Amino acid sequence: MTALLNNLQSVTASQAYKSTFTTNSTLSQYQSVKCPIDVSFTDESQTQLAYFLRLLKQASLQSRWIMFIGDEAMIDKKLLINAGVDISKVLVLKNKKLLDDQALMTKALISGNCSAVIAAGNITSFQTDAIRQASEQGQTLAFVINHATKHKVTLH
Predict the structure, then answer these.
(1) How many angstroms separate the CA atoms of 150 and 79, rounded?
(2) Span 98-124, mean pLDDT?
(3) What is the pTM of this model?
(4) What does the chain look like in DSSP terms, one character per residue?
(5) Are the C-beta atoms of 141 and 54 separated by less than 8 Å?
(6) Under the phi-then-psi rule, with left for phi > 0, alpha for psi from -120 to 50, and beta for the rest, what region is 139?
């Protein structure tokens, strides 16, 4: 499954999560999925949100950060806590120093200091070779939350 995921432009959170159930697969084995993971969810379909939170929970078990690039990417703190994410490992990058989110994501991914990097925007803007290579080199999950669907969710 991981080989298949490496050849795609992007994958969904559910595809990335389900790849952990292939033979002896773990979070570290699919962290090098060579494409950003698309997170789109609405009130009608919160399945992607559930898979996204499961992936973040697994990522928070590592001794690395989970970085949200800007407040636009951040999701509700209570939701993270209820999903079992260790919020002491969550960072929100607010001062972007005039860099675009794609450049910031690339820098964060390649550093290897994060187990997951989350940005908000259109997935096609993040489907670059630089982001794929940085994700692989830093062994870091790259998530892109779709702006259009994030604001339609009512968190309970």
Answers:
(1) 13
(2) 94
(3) 0.78
(4) -HHHHHTSS-EEHHHHHHGGGSTT--HHHHTT-SSPEEE---SS--HHHHHHHHHHHHHTTSSSEEEEESTTT---HHHHHHTT--GGGEEEE---TT--HHHHHHHHHHH--EEEEEEES-GGGG--HHHHHHHHHHT-EEEEE-HHHHTT----
(5) no
(6) left
- Percent pLDDT > 70 in the chain is 72
**Residue whose C-alpha is closest to residue 149's, from 51, 43, 9, 25:** 43
Q: Kindly report the length of the chain.
A: 156
Tokens of 6: 């490496």
Q: How confident is the model at residue 6 (pLDDT cuts 50, 70, 90)?
A: very low
pLDDT at 1: 40
